[in-house]
Design goal:
heterotrimer; A mainly alpha (about 240); B alpha/beta (about 220); C mainly alpha (about 220); A: about 240 residues; mainly alpha; about 80% helix; about 0% strand; globular; B: about 220 residues; alpha/beta; four-stranded antiparallel sheet; about 30% helix; disordered N terminus
């Protein structure tokens, strides 16, 4: 496994690989996401309690779920980068962080929008919303730290450490906020843990989740390619590649 | 703790080896595939323009920085395998002096002696007066001039019995007498079987009969 | 090893108390922040009692953030950290000792003056007891976790705001459990659970951070 992967740690091969993989992520991602969104927003049945307002779930839930797992993937990149000294992993963190931050922001925004008709206010200190907000701060921290260093190799190592510290803290933050929330307002009616979702409502959600995951992957791949080129501008292989184009 | 004192080494044994060292700073390849070795009783003079990566190379040799590729060996063992042991055999004088400005020269030296587990046998006052700092021993270091501060930091060479000296521009800010003193000290270190890696802009390093490594500035 | 650590502790204390007043600045800052709240919110004793624990804890977090900035800065700038790393002594242990001493010097006064804060904000004796215990267990964790971020930003010129951005989100669980312990004390309820969780987080921090701090310093020295 390792022997097979090792060549891809080199930036040039990683650039190629990301380029090859990109259409396989972008195209199915786009198709699935369009399919899921149209199905969810137009054809899925309305919720008997919330009416059409619940449809925002088709954007909100996938982005919220992904925002957390994208952070985890960033920490994994950091771990691999630090242990095996792979520069490409550091670049991957730089590529992932803004994508994760945008997903988190979408989750927050749609959550607030959903809150208006459901709870009557734009912002409620609901446990999930609060931990999403903290997650957004963590992403901002990573992005700011990376941007602060002149030497991007050092920056990569620093954000790797920070991402790993964050990922250890994330569950602690998540559970503490949940606990704090139940303490403050009693049991919140959970919008997510409905006993069972009707399959015709669930399918578009799952399709959207997969679609958005693939789209995020495509964005990360493209950003990784850019990052690699930006960082290796002086290398012969980049110069040759740019000449050919 | 066992010291590898310079006299116990046979002249000519290879102490420090650089294997395929590469260094990338700010996305610029400073050097790559650098190979050399330094043996006991021998010195290496690293020459090169500003920005050629001399300081980066020295910091890699001390283990303070990691090379992008390659490794540094101390007596044929990778320095990262037993860094503590390597560090006890090493004196590094860098751009930063490692002296706290609010403490006096004596306090600084006593502190570093304790940290380096050196028993206080040398008379520190005598050493400081040898370095031309008589009467300034109890003055906070940041009130001394740049040259005097550097002289205080040179005291490490007299205090820490290490086989390998890595000196980054040690003659900076020193006056003629101090330069002579330092040259003599380095000479006796080398003849005593110690080894040396040095960078400097001064020509007098050639008086030390070191091997020369010329580093090119590449864009 | 003991001799080395002893020398480091002595040096830290000497530097902290030799003429400069720096060690008291975080404390003064904390007092300032605390005294702003009654002015800004309302001086009503009941209101103050209600928000007191939160206010004191937020001030303690901000004050320790302020103090942490200087944790390794001077030693990094003058090269002492490099030489410490080349001393052949276990680097992580040295750094841990520095963090602990720094905690004693900057956060210690806050702990000592915490009865005063409790008086300012009209906390009951029971609440003060809970507050003191949470501060005692919680603030070392602030220093340990904060030291990682401090170490990572050592080579950067602009430390302050970035440091806050990196650290504050990590301190939220501590804030939640600590204030809830004090609130429980206000209602004369048991708060062992919260204390236990804070203690567990502290243990986790003690186990994981020394290695991370030393790694982070090495990244900065690279």
């Amino acid at each position: 496994m390792w022997k097979w992967l090792h060549p891809y740690a080199k930036t040039e091969r990683a650039h190629q690989l990301a380029g090859t993989l990109f259409p396989w992520f972008a195209l199915p991602g786009l198709i699935l996401f369009t399919l899921g969104t149209v199905w969810g927003l137009v054809f899925a049945p309305a919720d008997y309690q919330q009416g059409d307002a619940f449809r925002i779930i088709y954007i909100h839930v996938p982005s919220a779920l992904l925002s957390m797992s994208v952070y985890a993937s960033m920490a994994i990149c950091g771990f691999i980068g630090l242990v095996w000294q792979i520069r490409t992993c550091y670049m991957a963190i730089a590529a992932i962080a803004p994508v994760g931050a945008v997903l988190t922001f979408i989750a927050l925004w749609t959550g607030a929008t959903w809150g208006k008709p459901m709870w009557g206010t734009w912002w409620v200190w609901d446990a999930r919303l609060t931990s999403e907000l903290i997650l957004l701060f963590l992403y901002f921290g990573i992005m700011a730290l990376y941007a602060s260093f002149e030497d991007k190799l050092q920056a990569g190592k620093a954000v790797s450490v920070m991402a790993m510290v964050g990922v250890i803290n994330l569950p602690i933050i998540h559970y503490s906020v949940e606990w704090w929330n139940t303490l403050h307002q009693g049991a919140t009616i959970s919008k997510f843990e409905k006993p069972s979702m009707a399959p015709e409502m669930l399918w578009p959600l799952l399709i959207n989740l997969l679609g958005l995951a693939l789209l995020s992957g495509a964005l990360v791949l493209q950003r990784l390619r850019n990052e690699i080129v930006m960082r290796e501008l002086r290398r012969p292989w980049v110069i040759n590649m740019l000449k050919e184009q | 703790m066992v010291y590898c004192s310079p006299t116990s080494l046979i002249v000519g044994t290879i102490l420090l080896t650089a294997e395929n060292l590469s260094c990338i700073k700010q996305d610029r390849l400073l050097f790559s595939q650098l190979n050399f070795s330094v043996s006991a009783g021998n010195g290496l003079y690293i020459k090169g323009e500003n920005g050629a990566g001399k300081t980066s190379l020295l910091r890699i040799l001390t283990g303070l920085s990691q090379p992008a590729e390659g490794s540094v060996l101390w007596q044929q063992k990778d320095i990262t395998s037993d860094f503590e042991e390597y560090a006890t055999n090493l004196v590094y004088l860098g751009h930063k002096l490692g002296l706290n400005g609010n403490l006096s020269a004596i306090d600084n030296l006593v502190f570093w002696n304790t940290v380096n587990s050196i028993d206080d046998t040398t008379d520190l006052y005598e050493l400081l007066s040898l370095l031309g700092l008589a009467g300034l021993e109890d003055m906070p270091v940041n009130r001394l001039s740049a040259g005097q501060q550097r002289r205080v930091s040179l005291a490490r060479l007299w205090l820490k019995p290490a086989a390998l000296w890595i000196l980054d521009e040690p003659f900076n800010a020193l006056d003629v007498q101090a330069v002579e003193l330092l040259i003599d000290k380095i000479k006796s270190h080398i003849t005593g079987g110690g080894s040396l890696v040095i960078t400097s802009h001064l020509d007098m390093v050639t008086r030390l009969n070191c091997d020369v490594l010329h580093m090119e500035y590449n864009i | 090893m003991i001799r080395v650590l002893n020398a480091i502790v002595k040096r830290e204390f000497k530097l902290a108390f030799s003429g400069s007043f720096d060690f008291a600045l975080p404390l003064l800052f904390g007092v300032m922040v605390i005294s702003l709240f009654p002015l800004g919110v309302s001086p009503g004793p009941e209101m103050l009692q209600k928000i007191g624990a939160g206010v004191i804890w937020v001030s303690a977090i901000l004050a320790s953030l302020l103090g942490l900035e200087k944790l390794f800065r001077e030693d990094f700038r003058d090269g002492s950290l490099e030489q410490l790393r080349l001393s052949g002594q276990p680097f992580a242990v040295i750094l841990l000792v520095k963090v602990v001493v720094h905690w004693l010097i900057t956060v210690g006064p806050i702990l000592i003056l915490s009865p005063l804060f409790a008086l300012f904000l009209n906390l009951t004796p029971l609440m003060f007891e809970a507050l003191f215990l949470t501060l005692l267990l919680g603030t070392p964790m602030l220093s340990l976790v904060g030291a990682i971020a401090v170490a990572l930003t050592l080579s950067l010129e602009k430390g302050g705001i970035l440091l806050a951005l990196l650290m504050l989100p990590l301190f939220i669980p501590l804030l939640i459990f600590a204030t809830s312990a004090v609130n429980n004390a206000q209602l004369q309820l048991n708060y062992n659970g919260q204390l236990g969780i804070i203690a567990a987080m502290l243990m986790l921090a003690i186990a994981l951070t020394p290695w991370s701090i030393s790694f982070a310093v090495k990244v900065s020295q690279n």
